[in-house]
Each structure stands twice: as C-alpha cells, then as structure tokens.
Amino acid sequence: MKNPIFVLWLIVAAMLTFGLALLVDNAYFYFAGYVVLQYIVLATAWNILGGYTGYVNFGIPAFIALGAYSTVALHKLTNLPLIVMMIVGGIVSGLVGVGTGYLTLRLRGTFFSIATLAMAVVMQTLVTNWAFVGGSRGAYIIRPATVQYLGINYITYLFLMMLGLCVLSVGIARAIEKSRLGYGFATIRDDELAAEASGVPTLRLKLIATGLSGGLMGMAGAPLPYYVTYLDPASAFSLSYAVNTIAMPLIGGTSGWLGPILGALLLGTLQQVATVTISSALSLLIVGVMLVGFVVAAPKGILGWFQK
Amino acid sequence: MLAFMWLSPLAIPGGIGHIAAKETSQARIMDISFDLLGNALVSGLLLGGFYAAVTIGVSISFGMLDIVNIAHPAFILLGSYVAYIVNANFGFDPILVSIAAMPAFYFLGVGIYHVYDVSFERRGDTALRGLSFFFGLLFITEVGLVLVFGVDYRLVEAVYIGPTLHFGVIDLPLRLLVPAAVSVAMMGLLYLYLSRTFIGRAVQAVAQDPLALRLMAADPSRIKRIAFGLSIATASVAGAILIIVQPVEPSVGRDYIGRIFAICVLGGMGSFAGTLVAAIILGVMENLTATFYGPSWAPAVSFGFLLLTLAFRPSGIFGRA
Amino acid sequence: MSGAPILQVSDLGKRFGGFVALADIELEVGRGERMGLIGPNGSGKSTLVNCICGTLRNESGSIRFEGKALDGMKAHQRTRLGLSRTFQLPRPFGTLTLAENLRIPILYAVQARQGGGDSDIDRRCMALLDMVGLAAKSNLLPKELTQIEMRKLELARAMAAEPRLLIADEAMAGLSHGEVDDILALLVRLNEQQGITIILIEHIMRAVLSFSQRLVVLVAGRKIADGAPQDVVRQDDVVAAYLGS
Predict the structure, then answer these.
(1) Is B291 a member of any domain?
(2) How far is CA C182 from CA A60, B275, C175, C177, in A?
(3) Interface contacts B/C by beta carbons within 8 Å
(4) C17 touches B at CB < 8 Å
(5) Is residue B104 part of a domain?
(6) Is position B30 within any domain?
(7) Domains along chain C?
(8) In C, which residues are within 8 Å of B318 by CB distance?
(9) Tell me: the pLDDT tens digits for A209-229?
(10) What percent of chain A has pLDDT over 90?
(11) Which domains, and CATH codes, for chain A?
C-alpha cells in the first residue's frame, strides 16, 4: 500500500474515532481518550528510535516536559495558537535530542541510554530551578473554555489536536519503515559495524532518528499544560511516562508501526480502568510487571504471536 | 523544607549551604572563609567515600560483566528499607542488619542474573530488551516500595548519627565518617576476595577472556552468576549507609543513577582504585557546588561529569585504553 | 596492472594499550592486482584490514586510496569511495532477507556515489545473488543459511557496493575443496573481467598461491616479506615463522 493511501486510511480512522466520541458525548471519554492518544504518539515516537534502530531512550519525561514547558513559557509571553506551540515544542525537543545524541551516540548504545536517563534528572533540576515557569511550585495555565472559530469546547479541541498528531506520527513511522531510511535504521539495529562497512552513515541516521523521536515527543507534550491546567515538575517528569512509553511498543511489538498502537491501546485502556477501580500506583506496578514479563517471555510482543 | 532533606548530605550541616550561597554573592572571593572551604572539602571527601560503596556494585556488574544494571539504585533502596524496618522495630544497628542481609541480597542477584542470562545473554539480545528488563525492575521496585512504605521520608537511629568530631576548624560528622569508613572497608574486602581467591580471579578473567576461562575448566555462566550476586550483595550495605547519610524515600534512587554511572565510567569501569578516586572527585565537586551555589544543582554536577567523561575520556582515569 | 597504485599504506602503526598490533607497515597495491596476505593467527592481518577500511583508527602512518588520503574518514565514506571488505565471521543483517541485505550497499554506497533510482535495484540484487548461487533463497533470512552460504552472502554484499578494491578476509574458511575452488574462480573472474583489485587474506595455502600475483607476509605486526609468491614461500624467515618445513 502506497504511503499517501495509508495516510488517507489513517485520516478515515481518526474521523471515525472522533465520530465515536461525538456519539458517546461524555466529557470523561475526551479526557481519557486524550491520554490514550497521547500514548499512541509517544509509543510511536519512541519506537522510531528504540524499535527501528535499537537505541533505548530512557529520557522520555525530559522530552515531554520540554514540550510542555515551552508551552508554559510561550503562554506567559505571547498569545500564540496551540498548533504553533506544538511546533515550537517539537523543535526544541528535537534539537535537544540531536544534541544529546551528538554527544553520546558515537559511543556504545548503552552509554547513550545511561546518558538519557541521567539527562532526564538534570532537566528536571533545571526546570525546578527556573522561577519563570513556576519552579517547584508549578504553573497554572488557564484553559480557554471554547475555541470560538470552531465552536467546540477546549477539551474536544485538545482531543482533535492529539488525533491529528497521531495521524502525523503514525504516518511518519510507516513512511520511514518502507523507505531507504528505514532500511538504514534496520541495519543499525542488526549490526552497526557491518552497516558502516556497507556505506550506511550510521551517526547521521542515528541523529535523524533521535531528532525525529524527540521532536514528536515534544509535540505530544506541548498541549499538556492546557490539559492539566496545573503543571509542576514532579508530574511533568513523572516516571510513569517513561515506563508506559517503553512498555507499549515492547508489549505491542517493535518491528513496525502497528505494535506501538496496539500496546498503547491495550495498556492505555487497562490503566484508565485500573486507576478508577484499584489505584494508580498499583496500575503502574502492573505495567512494570507486564513490561518485564513480555521482555523475558515474548520478545516479539503481541504482534509476534500473530506472525508465526 | 522536606524537599531539601534529601540533599542534606550536600549541606554542611543542615542549612548552612543555603546561607553560604547568599553570603558568597556579597562577599569577594578573597573573603570566603577558609573554614567553609575546608569543611566543604572534607565533607566532600567523606561523601565520595560513601559514593564509592554505592557504585562498587555497578563497577562489578557493568564494569566487569558488561551488564547494564540500571536497577542497582533500586536494590540499594531495598537495602535502606530493610535496614529501616529492622532498626525501627528492633533497634538493631543498621549496618549490622545490612551485613546480616547480604546473603539474601546475594541470592536475589543470582536469581536475577539467571533470568537475564537465559532471556537475553544467550539469545544475544542484550541491548534493547536487556536494558528494558532492568528498567522494568527499577520501576517495579520503586513503585513496590511506594505501595508498601508510602512516600514519606524514613530515617534510622544509631549512636553515631548526630555526634561530630572537631579538629580545629574542621568538623567531621560521624554521620558521614562511619559510612565512608564502612565503604572503604567493604571495598577493601572485595578487592582482596577478587585478587586472592580462585573464584575472585575467575571473575576478573571472565571480563576479559571467557574462552580462556573455559579452558581453565571454569564455567563462565557460573562465575558471572556469582559476581552478579556479589554486586547485589553490596547494595545491602550501600543501602544501610545511604539511610544513615540522608533520609530516604522511594524516588531517591533516581538521583543516584547519574552519580553511579558517572563514577563508574570516570573510574575506568571495573577498577576499584579508579572507582574510589572518581567517587571522591565527584563527592568533592558536588559538595563545593552545593556549598557555594546551592544544593539543588547537585544532579547537574554528576551529569556534567558523565557527559564530559564520555566525550573526552571514555576509558576513565584508570581505564584500560 | 600499470599506473598509479590503487592503495598506498605508509608507515602504519596501531596499538591497543600497551600491545603493538601493527608497526611500520608499508604496502602498495597496484590497480587490478591480485594480492595475497598471509601470516600466523594474531599477526595483525585483520587489524590491518580494519585500519584500511576505517573500522579502526591507526595512530600513525597514512593510507591513500586512488591517491586520496583516507585519514579521518569514517568507514562508510571509504566504502563509498570504492573500498569494500568481507568480515572474517560473517555479519549479515539478521532481520533482512538476503535480497534486502544486498539492497543496503546499493542504496547507501552506490547511490550515494552515483545517484540513480530504485527501478533496477531488485534486478541487481538478484544478479548478485545469482553470481554466488543464492538466487533461489532470496527471500530467506540469514539465519536459515548454512555457514558456507553465509560466507557467499558476505561476499555478494561486499560486491554489491561496486568496489574497485575488495578485501576478502578469510572468505573461504571452513569450505570444502570444491567450494574453495568455486569462490576462487569467482574472485579471479571479478578481477579479470571487471578489473577489481583484490586482496585475499587466507590460511588455505594452495588457494593463496594459485590466486596471488603477489604475496605479503605479516608476522607479529610487521611485514616480513613482499614479492612474487614463488620467491616469498622460499624465504627462510617466512618458512620459520609461518609455513613450517
């Protein structure tokens, strides 16, 4: 299936989802749905680096927070529409991703992973010390009630934006998969030394992956302040983002664009249900256990079960 | 206030670091009291000694066995909480408790290595899935501790928490001195074990040449299992001295990931002397930063060290080039 | 076999910590030449290959390929210039099919050099697989191949980059008598018909002797012989160090 047709199908799926939301007509559906859609984007973005090239990024909260805090800063300085803030958040995160990559990707993959882990902690320290965005006390963002020129309320608007971002990120993920770039990524994952010897510019490709992955995660984080209306470093840098974003592709399947979506839908809904019925801490524990379980026993994820 | 409690090892003592930060913005460089500098250096030294104990487990698992156990801080926290429970309920000295708990930690390590070996090392899939495995363990341990103990800070009580020795202008809080001493003692014992016993030497050999090890009729898997078990056993003691140095709550482990790997890499990945020297350097730099710029910048110091080391000298100070 | 040499290695040195792997290596390979490189295990042959191809960085000395200095160039840049190698232990891309394995050098080495589209990539992949007799298995994964077939794939992949200099690092280890002859014939054909310069690193003496127009011997990181094969094999130090009596 050619890529433009695939994107068309994605848009159809998105419209159907929105139609479903309109039918259900429940505010909670939009709130919960936003979270699941956000995780589809995060899982897909992470997988571009983790699943396709094999480089594990543990600093996910940092990229999300970069997007979120760019929005907070812009919100205080200007009156830009959300979509511009998302683009800015994406650019900032993308640049940080490339920067971290440039410093660490020439070494082994494990050093890159450790560096991302440490970077998340440092980024949190910097933000906590930055009074302009509220520091440790956090920042309050007034969420507009409606979007006038569209005639819908803001939560629905956020839901739609995240749907759009889903289409964008899944479209990018699949386009990469079938392209020259995708083959290059696969060789980095399979055998980086042989890839270099075959003419693949591995560092450049890894930087592209890190930039794309980080940028998309930043875009996913940009609307967050409007969603939560109160943003503080503890919740922005929450470890639950990290474990979920990694668990979803690993459980769904890392080899293509579909796995992260499966994982996000499964884990996302599971957690929404668990948070309401048991407790959010326990639901996180379940995610952690599932991550370890799948990684040990089902390395190809759910998709792997169907491939045989 | 509570937010700064976890940073208390970096302020000497209590809140002086904060006051010092204000003072220095008004004082000229020449007027900075040498007492303050001296004490910052000494406390940094002791802190570094403590950091060495926290890192030595990873020096073994990552430096020698090439297993990226990022969950090590979580096991250290486990050690802290074990020491806490026994200390709070029975009053036993936390360090003695942790030594008694070492065999349990050792077997935990052996079990974890076994799963790791079968699932990843033998399949040759250590990169993505191996790392995610340990990340999952880190996470499960942290959330598990939150579920059982909550997010309140926990402390232990012992005879040496509180008193301070005074040598002229230099203060030596026993709270830092005893952990540093225990740390050095533990490293010394480990070093003797690794260099004098057959199994110990086999552990050093397996890092460099698994084939030669097989020819010596030793099974690399078994040796690695023992070594990893030892690495987790050190976490028991490291946890006890951690909760002596500072109050502890489940997310504290995350701050130590950067420190541990910075020290491990700077120290040359598996060199004991290197780990100690690198830990002391980091301890001193962190403490100076905390004293003169405020304690909240501490994580940036270890990360900065990590990045600089990776960028300019990945083999570390004592590393094999 | 005339004109400027295709490869010039001057005063090359490489250490690993305190261990000297290569010292004072001087080597010139003529365009279109068939050179053999032999020596005991651990003498530095693979290290030399790695330095020439950019997988390792040499501390001293310089390497020139077709007159161009290679120092500081990454491995992928050298491959794009026309330098290709096989690995001693085959390193196929495990999640790609055989045909896809061959796509990679075409996409990244050849196209980067020449531009051009994807239209006949499939045809070129099949032609390369056909050359080594693996065309029927084009849709299989490397793990389904035998060791011998993996070595052939390794060779085909090196050839997919359309090199002007090919370094075959023990491409024939473990092959049967007939299979060695097949690969040798293939290499000679590539050399004679397409003018590809070939450096053959091997332990199978009869293969090396029948193939090489020139023979270089490496012992303990130093070159101890360089000349016509029939002369080199009679040199005393070569016999003592490597060939035995």
Answers:
(1) no
(2) 53, 55, 10, 9
(3) 3
(4) yes
(5) yes
(6) no
(7) 5-92+163-243 (3.40.50.300)
(8) none
(9) 999 999 999 999 999 998 888
(10) 46
(11) 3-307 (1.10.3470)
